[in-house]
Bifunctional oligoribonuclease/PAP phosphatase NrnA
Amino acid sequence: MIDLETLKDKLAQPCKIVITTHHKPDGDAMGSSLGLYNYFIQKGHFVKVVSPTDYPYFLQWLPNNPEVIIYTEKPEESKKLIADAELIFCLDFNALARINEMGEEVRRSSAIKIMIDHHLEPEGFDDFRHWNINACATAQLIYDFIVNYLKDGELINKDVATCLYTGIMTDSGSFRFPNVTSDLHRIVANLIDAGAQNWKIHQQVYDNATEGRLKFLGYCLSNKLEVLREYNTALISVSKEDIKKFDIQTGETEGIVNYALSINGIKLAAFIVERSDRVKLSLRSIGTFPANEICKKYFDGGGHRNAAGGQSNDALETVVEKFRSILPEYKELLLQ
């Protein structure tokens, strides 16, 4: 590990910097990445954001989004950037498996690796760590890194503020989760003062659906929703044929699990979707129920206590039955 002063000395002169985040980036991942990018370009660094995969169209309006390189589309350029980098900032993930085949490229790089994240159980690949599981979003930690670590709060301009507000808004469930504190609201107020247009950001992210996405949501709720009252659990499962029928794009299934969780009395909700290469699970819970424990123990995943994800190479029907079979183990917690 290196200390903060060593990192600050390195950043005191122009550096080759790569910023990356987890595959299929969400609002916090891209908001954090482009927020940090928009800060670093003001300092004269040569900086690139390299995303392991594509990401939702409703995030592609973020300031300087055209500068993002997608690894799966430009692998050779991405590999060269990683190999030549002096610093690699790893945002919103703490295990290199989360960036797919890019992980080994990052591991081999001689660059100093900086992890900024709020997820449990870091892998330990990093050389410098700004990590806090109590932060509601990585974008919150980016703000803290710029303002309190690097003492550069005056460089939080409109572009930086817009990106960081987006990350905080999306990962906090529009400021409704338990880890939204008065301190976070003060950060958000500062971002608005710096130029973030809160109403416009919300509109760009949440009021920007395709016709297919809305029809798919209706289909999920009317045809695919199962309520298991004996376990205070709700489940939605969809096949790859369903995804194809409604022409669902990257990111358009995000948030559907929350509709299941919003049912009165439900304590655990699951959205299980069949992709071309595997089955993905998104779990959400309320209170102290450990959704992340189920994902880690049974579905090669993890996350936060109330928001977690996993995956399986089994058939969709097998994964759904496995999920059902796990519920008796947690019945007492689910019925509390």
Q: What stands out?
A: The chain is about 40% helix and 20% strand. The first helix runs from residue 4 to 11. The chain has two domains: 4-206, 211-335. The CA atoms of residues 244 and 275 lie 10 Å apart.
